[in-house]
Design brief:
Chain lengths: 261, 218
């Protein structure tokens, strides 16, 4: 369970997150929807401390993230070791995959269990092979990332994150860098994870992604949560004008794109 | 060329060749480690540290190796460090070439995208593990041709420390020449041996490069 309370953050004079609060229940998939610059990616990056926030509070599985209560009601900010330790249970998948180019697919997935959790070669390999099987890439285990398609690389990146057995998985625009015909295979993997009951927070500007996997949609604009709810009602019957506009523009662009194709 | 002279001196020359190799190896390894630390320090240590290291690097790179070797040779005892001439030679060479390694590595490290470091962080690695597992292997692949080139230069540069009396190929050759008065015989033999070492280094660099580039699409 993730709980975000009154989170705010500025880059200089530019406030990117303004008093954000939301919850994601265990085993649910939340989608942060919005156009670029809405603050959704910054929000996601706060969830594994790649970004520091100014004010507010994040809890994951009941424990505060990034700081520990110390004597006298004060909070002590985590050191690098504590941050690294917490990140081990918070998986993240990036838009540009960010696989390690000098390692094979198998080595990429083994990297976490072997180099971080200190498991022996055989155990790490077993974990990695099982995950590669789960994302349908057993056949590519000895290939280097540069020789895979975008969709395949992204599935490896998901497997690499899963190898750390995260309690939460953060997905940052994971289909945005993919050719349209490769989006399906990645979504398939995400749907499978959802069925397995993994808690996920996804950032996207693509409405079908939200429709496809979300239990809960959080629509953001200019650092604020504009609307929040179940995808079925929200995406067909938006309550706010801003979401309505966003949906209209998205559908118009999409029709235009399809006509052009 | 007087073959018998060469044959007689062969065991000694081969031993000297071995010394040159050991000297080059120790120097290269030390320079790699030192250069890595300098590169890391100048990237992590903030502006002041970066500036100081910049001055040291430019300073050392701007002076002749021969003068630097003399400097270290006389400086070490002054600092209360009394070590064998051989190691004094190693230290001088390693310090000198560490600055070159640092420059090569700094350039290579800068080509590694920041998102690679983020990917390591997101998995839960800490700084040094990211450097070791994610960044360095990629930087080394990029820096390899330049580093191997430098290794060949180091092999040749070891001849300079003969001046402070480190017994290696050049000094041994010179001794042989003085005993036999046959300079061409021995210096040509020495040249041949240096050439084999350097050419071997350059060739193995090409081989290593090819191996490490398997991860790349050509």
């Amino acid at each position: 369970m993730i709980s975000v309370r009154n989170l705010s953050k500025s880059f200089g004079a530019n406030a990117v997150l303004k008093d954000i609060s939301f919850d994601v229940a265990k085993g649910r998939t939340a989608v942060l929807l919005g156009k670029s610059g809405s603050g959704k990616s910054t929000m996601l990056r706060c969830l594994n401390m790649l970004e520091r926030w100014d004010n507010g509070h994040i809890e994951i599985d009941g424990a505060a993230l990034g700081r520990t209560p110390s004597t006298g009601g004060e909070w002590r900010r985590w050191n690098a070791r504590e941050e690294a330790q917490a990140r081990q249970r918070i998986g993240m998948v990036f838009q540009q995959f960010n696989l390690f180019p000098h390692m094979t697919v198998l080595q990429n997935v083994m990297c976490g269990p072997k180099r971080i959790l200190g498991k022996d070669e055989a155990t790490a390999k077993k974990i990695a092979l099982a995950l590669l099987d789960q994302v349908g890439l057993s056949a590519k285990q000895n290939a280097y990332p540069a020789f895979l398609s975008g969709g395949q690389q992204q599935r490896v990146a998901i497997a690499r994150a899963l190898a750390m057995e995260p309690t939460v998985l953060l997905l940052d625009e994971i289909t945005s860098a993919l050719d349209p015909e490769l989006v399906g295979e990645v979504l398939e993997v995400v749907r499978d994870l959802k069925r397995r009951g993994l808690t996920m927070v996804c950032v996207t500007h693509e409405i079908h992604f939200a429709e496809d996997v979300a239990d809960q949609v959080i629509f953001m604009e200019e650092g604020l949560i504009v609307e929040e709810g179940a995808p079925e009602s929200m995406l067909t019957n938006p309550r706010t004008e801003r979401l309505q506009k966003f949906l209209t523009r998205f559908h118009a662009q999409n029709r235009g794109g399809k006509a052009a194709a | 060329m007087e073959v018998t002279l060469l044959v007689n001196a062969a065991p000694l020359l081969l031993q000297a060749l071995g010394q040159t190799l050991v000297l080059a190896l120790i120097t290269t390894l030390l320079a790699l480690v030192l250069g890595f630390l300098i590169a890391e320090a100048s990237m992590l240590g903030g502006r002041a540290v970066a500036f100081i290291l910049r001055c040291v690097i430019e300073g050392i790179r701007g002076i002749p190796l021969l003068v630097f070797v003399f400097l270290i040779y006389y400086l070490l005892p002054r600092l209360g460090i009394f070590i064998d001439t051989f190691y004094a030679g190693c230290v001088a060479l390693a310090l000198f070439f560490a600055t070159y390694v640092a420059e090569i590595l700094r350039g290579a490290l800068r080509t590694i995208p920041k998102v690679q470091i983020e990917a390591g962080k997101a998995l839960g690695m800490r700084h040094w593990k990211i450097q070791l597992v994610v960044v360095m292997p990629q930087a080394v692949r990029i820096a390899l041709p330049a580093l191997m080139n430098l290794a060949a230069i180091v092999i040749k540069a070891t001849s300079v420390v003969s001046i402070i009396g480190v017994w290696e190929l050049t000094l041994a050759t010179n001794e042989a020449v003085m005993r036999t008065l046959a300079p061409f015989t021995f210096f040509i033999a020495a040249l041949g041996m240096y050439f084999v070492l350097c050419y071997g280094t350059v060739r193995s660099a090409a081989y290593l490069s090819k191996r490490m580039n398997r991860s790349q699409r050509s």
